[in-house]
């Protein structure tokens, strides 16, 4: 059985890793869709799809997880076409894990088996909170896998990027 | 004389029907543009263009109205191209009915005759209020033509869809 | 039972009309998709989607045919998303009539019932041949319904348009 | 040395003119990108790219400024592709003037020299405030070059346009 | 009176320059649309819109021509929307010069005055032939203004680009 | 060192596998871009990006190859934006392997190290020839890795798809 999950992974954190481990207990393979792949360089979406791909891939390998496929998925501007868009970009699958009402409904209408995700420690494992910590200079090292921390701080100049973007200029030129 | 109106029709309600009847008193035909055709499966735009087409077509037939053309119209991301976009998708027309300031201005700049719509009972005939009633489980049956009520409840699983979409999950996966 | 057919209808000719009559013998309603809706003003696609809509609608009414829905459908640049695109724009249907191998395959993969179209007199009822006759000044009046002939010659300046487009200029300016 | 600046210029005001004069003290040529070129006919973006082109071009000529290139630039929906998009539409340049954090970061990541703009009298030279004055019927003549005032009031019907757009109609038809 | 012409200008050659001089005898200003602005790096369209902009602008200045506006114009995939697209990007104009049948027809249907271009020496002033000469290493220096020759050979590495693109590899990887 | 290659992989054959093995002798990781990701269900591009992803991933795992990233890459309609598009979707890389003149030129202009691919047995390892064999019912089993053969014949109904698409119908409906 192959399962599908989708997230924005801005950034990929320990909660994401736990979810993937949980899914792989009941499924042979997991397809990890990187959602809103076209977005980056904003406060909500600081990292490119390729940067997020690197975070996920290196973390799973470091955790000795194999049976995964990572697929960047750009948004389409028509909800009823979205499932067909995902299907065209991924290996075949029949089970979807999500807590997002729209994702849930769209796959349900296309006859997929949809399961809810286990509730995890939302407080500390939240992309929103991690990005806030990055901007404010607080410690976020423990919220993400070590591989992700290294990629963002060493390889991507990620902290400088998100802090510079946090400066505002209401009316440019 | 052929007239043009556009609306999102989320859903098509009794106010819409009254407007079309009024327009057909002064015009031979009416072109009904289904606006924002690409949107669906959101709280503001729950129904697809095709579902809205079905609501309108069946209601007009049930009311013995004939001289109409229904045309789904997707948004374009350039206002000065929008009138040409509409023209390319519809039979020719020369008169436009609208209360929307942007629609009014765009057709005015292209030399169309633009007329305001008669003021109707806005309180009870409002798409926004009908969608709120659907979500809260209140009675909305009297706000729409019987044909529309039957399509949404029997044919489309429409109430389940809008209620599920109303669940929120801030930070999916 | 509602059936779906799609064509470019450049222009709508007597063969198209025969096909629709045949389909309505076995089905309650027919959805007529106007394919490649975004194309016009070329030798292969001279008429806009709206002009084709007018041809079809007026002809069916003149033939006392009622149970139809006409829907302009723009191309999408991804074949596996095309069926979902059609579904989002049309009332629900479950049976498709087509002789086009791609259309046939795409609907088959989405579990639709797909039927072949009856073979008609292809020689005289061919959009390609009718457009050639228009350009060369030959008689094409008998190839199309009278309503279509009147629309193209009186209402659209259609013959001048296709003849002017047939002039070539290899290297403009 | 050729410099690049980008703005929405809704409308082009005296602050913009001062900035261009300042830049040309240190650079041989300036490329003026008209940003969000696809937007117009909204309260925030009332004028088309072509109308803004006319304002800028005529003003610079009236001020005897020559060494400029004006280029309308539509938005792209992917930030990391935006610099390549600009590069494809403009003559080559190597220095960028901006106070916008995103523009600054995107050009920085592509190895451009990025300079901040001199701080000008932001209070009176603000596009937002000028558009508010237009809507409210206040005097905005002194905020823009005379050429711009003449274009908006004589040539474009610009004041009527922005005032009509300021009317609201929550739920059209 | 402001006139409009459009070309691909791959590259801008002496024939183009003659046409612009001729047009400016009868018109106060000329808007020069750079067509197919999104295309570059192919054998038919080797130069970017920005590179073509530079060729045209520098040549006109070198010839002491002033009253021009240069506007890159990307293609749209709908012919009936193309005129509105051009209008949104350019200063207002009312007269069009073209020999292209499609451009002629589209502006004619939107009520513009359309004039044919004077017939020039097509044999030697042809973009197609100049690009062939570039690829084959023949002499093309006399076919273009000196400014254009210098830009392509000194500033753009243009000859290397078109020659490398002329190598073929049917089945990459 | 991370290397990048791109292909359409319609289908992934033994030549592709040899190339990847060769590249991994000189590089730590290889990013495999699936080009023209949006195309499928045509004679030239029968398989979806997701189906091609599955072929590549399963084959590399079966060959005990690990250090790879697979990324579907849709075409963009602007060559000078293509490299930035690739960069946004992939982990960072600095070396490109290709024999395609356009890919070579585009990466060269963005300062990448570009290497040619080793010449392999083009006659038998050609996507074009394999697709022809599929259509004609000839034996193509030895041209592809066993994993690919099994996916196409067992998991995808791939042979039926390409044969049905090979039927032609010039003028649908």
UniProtKB/TrEMBL annotation, chains A, B, C, D, E, F:
GO cellular component terms attached to this protein's record: cytoplasm
Main subcellular location: cytoplasm
InterPro entries: Cyt_trans-like (IPR004821), NMN_Atrans_arc (IPR006418), Rossmann-like_a/b/a_fold (IPR014729)
Localisation: Cytoplasm
Domain Cytidyltransferase-like: 5-133
GO biological process, one term: NAD+ biosynthetic process
GO-annotated molecular function: ATP binding; nicotinamide-nucleotide adenylyltransferase activity
Keyword Transferase: yes
Pathway where this protein functions: Cofactor biosynthesis; NAD(+) biosynthesis; NAD(+) from nicotinamide D-ribonucleotide: step 1/1
UniProtKB keywords: ATP-binding, Cytoplasm, NAD, Nucleotide-binding, Nucleotidyltransferase, Pyridine nucleotide biosynthesis, Transferase
Catalytic activity: beta-nicotinamide D-ribonucleotide + ATP + H(+) = diphosphate + NAD(+)
Enzyme Commission number, as recorded: 2.7.7.1
EC main group: transferase
Keyword S-adenosyl-L-methionine: no
Family matches, as SUPFAM superfamilies: Nucleotidylyl transferase
Superkingdom in the source lineage: Archaea
PANTHER family: BIFUNCTIONAL NMN ADENYLYLTRANSFERASE_NUDIX HYDROLASE, PHOSPHOPANTETHEINE ADENYLYLTRANSFERASE
Family the entry assigns: Belongs to the archaeal NMN adenylyltransferase family.
Name assigned to this protein: Nicotinamide-nucleotide adenylyltransferase
